[in-house]
Amino acid sequence: MHRSILLALLLTTPMPAQDGSQLYTTHCSACHAADGKGATGGQFPPLAGSPWVQGDPQRTIKLVLHGLTGPVEVAGRTYNLEMPPQGSVIPDDHLAAILTHVRASWDNGSPAVTPGMVKAARAATADRKTPWTAPEILKLHPLPAVAPPIANLISRIYPGEWQDLPDFSKLTPINVEEEHDGLISLSDADRNELVGLVWEGEITAPKSGKFIFRLDADDCARVIVNGKTVAEVRGIGPHDGSRAKQGQIQLAAGPHPIRIEYVEFRGQEAISLAMKGPGIPGWRNLSDSPIPAERPSLMVKAGAERAVVYRNFIADTTPRAIGIGFPGGVNLAYSADNLAPELIWTGDFIDGSRHWIDRGQGNQPPAGDQVVKLSGSPALADSARFRGYKLDPAGNPTFSVQLGKQFVLDSWKPAGSEGSPSFLRTLTVNGQGGPLELLLSDLLPLKITGDQDFDLGDTLQLHAEGSTLESRDGKTFIKLTPGQTATLTYRWK
Ligand code: HEC
After folding, report:
1. Is residue 431 part of a domain?
2. Cα 45 to ligand 1 centroid, rounded to whole Å
3. How far is the CA of 108 from the centre of ligand 1 (A)?
4. Helix 92-104 crosses helix 115-124 at what angle (to 10 degrees)?
5. What is the whole-number distance in angstroms between the Cα of residue 19 and the centre of ligand 1?
């Protein structure tokens, strides 16, 4: 072919359109990830659902040309990193193709960018030599206004002491507030412990489909959408993901009423709620505190024939607690500090994931139910010392405590049948000395119901043999005679 014809062909054939997706992979995905959610598990800011890439294209173009440094907030999270300028390595048509791709992907829903727009931005910022800070570029090109996550949000505050959600419709709030930022929050108002809160407002489903709501709270909470309870966190416990609940509901595109009920009992207080579904990139936070990461549960389980021991921090006992899960679904947490069984419960034993995955931060609550706290103070005189425990072939423990020249041996094993869980506890005193008095409970009232039968609190029946029980000042003691075996059967009603 003649050279001049080749040249003419090259000049007249239109340039092939740049592949924005491929150029994105080359120039951006190392830091912002192929799915736009931010590389290294979100250490870098996301472009998916980022208001920074939506609306006025000049902001995004100028940012990529010259880079960005210092604190920047993207979708409720603050990053403080540096993005190097890309202007010298990416020509106008390539950058236009990349940004067209980014703005059309991941629900960013923004129109295309032309090479002409990039050219204009380059010319307008030609003397810029350093990366932008977020305030600098936002002054030139503010972010598009975003609707509050929950529209018309109001909160009502109820004083009171609850360990579960009350019927708020029967109660009168002491305070009603408008929450203009549209986020559920415990930080704005002066909200003490022992409080109930109800928020009401409207969420918008961008498209019709199934929406998932994820809720976590310290202590209990419930989220109701369109009058239907979607997720509930019940009981007293931490806000750390271990009790978070997820539920889904079908919603038509458009606004829907949402109601969140919350109760704080004692200790820490927190609530978080997020939603996701069609038209929402990732999770949308509906609360100012983000939802804790999902943690897979790793239930510690007794064998069919053998009990299992868990040595780690257990919520609501002392730091040196020994957890034992027995076959048949009865469980015990013995405090080596207080020389006493402190918690007993039925059902699942304990979720070990916190300590195996997160390296042991915080306390793990019992995983089962009917948790009974028996006592919370030392069972014997201060001079008594914990001397360890032995397991029999079935894994049943005998705890040993020394007091002077005497040893108290405290053995536990499951005794009940399916559907009627119970424990058999055997106490003996060896060594030189007289009778001993051991604290059984300083928390639960004792009521005599028969010759050797008692109610211990509301949930337990106690049967005693070979000893006498005595209650005074709200505490129950057992009298142990050296050389004589005392047995106690704890049965859940
Ligand atoms: C070397 C890593 C790196 C590369 C490559 C990179 N970025 Fe960034 N980008 C960052 C960092 C880091 C920030 C946040 C800077 C800060 O904290 O001030 C950021 C911020 C942004 C932001 C504003 C915040 C947000 O998340 O919306 C946009 C928009 C953006 N980058 C687009 C792009 C595009 C488009 C490309 C490809 C042309 C790209 N970036 C390439 C690291 C990078």
Report:
1. yes
2. 7
3. 16
4. 110
5. 20
**pLDDT of amino acid 485:** 94
- Do both 106 and 207 map to the same domain? no
* Residue with CA nearest ligand 1 atom 13: 83
pLDDT in tens, 371-419: 899 999 999 988 999 999 999 988 899 999 999 999 999 999 999 777 7
Q: Write down the pLDDT at residue 347.
A: 87
Residue nearest to atom 42 of ligand 1 (CA): 83
Query: Would you call 59 helix, strand, or coil by DSSP?
Result: helix
Instruction: Please identify, among 263, 285, 307, the residue that sits at the C-terminal boundary of a domain.
Output: 285
If one residue of 80, 83, 105 were mutated to test the ligand 1 pocket, choosing by the most ligand atoms within 8 A of its CB, it would be: 83
Contact 346, 370 (CB under 8 A): yes
What rounded mean pLDDT belongs to the chain? 87
pLDDT tier for residue 487 given thresholds of 50, 70 and 90: very high
Domain presence at residue 293: no
Amino acid (1-letter code) at residue 165? L
Which residue type occupies 140? L
Specify whether 313 is located in the same domain as 445. yes
> Is 304 in the same domain as 405?
yes
> What is the number of structural domains in the chain?
3
Q: Which amino acid is at 180?
A: H
| Domain that residue 459 falls in | 299-492
The span from the CA of 79 to the CA of 85, in Å, is 17
Of 140, 166, 201, at which residue does a domain stop?
140
Same domain, 135 and 212: no
6 pLDDT higher than 50: no
Best of 68, 79, 102 for a ligand 1 pocket test (most atoms within 8 Å of beta carbon): 68
The pair of structure tokens assigned to 191 is: 């909200």
Same domain, 303 and 349: yes
Within 6 A (CB) of ligand 1 lie 27-28, 30-32, 44-47, 50, 52-53, 60, 63-64, 68-70, 72, 74, 79-84, 86, 98, 102
Q: Going by C-beta distance under 8 Å and a sequence separation of 6 or more, which residues neighbour residue 175?
A: 156, 157, 189
**Residues 53 and 108: beta-carbon distance below 8 Å:** yes
Q: What is the pLDDT of residues 245-271, one digit of tens each?
A: 888 999 999 999 999 999 988 778 899
Q: What is the CATH number of the domain that holds 281?
A: 2.60.120.1560
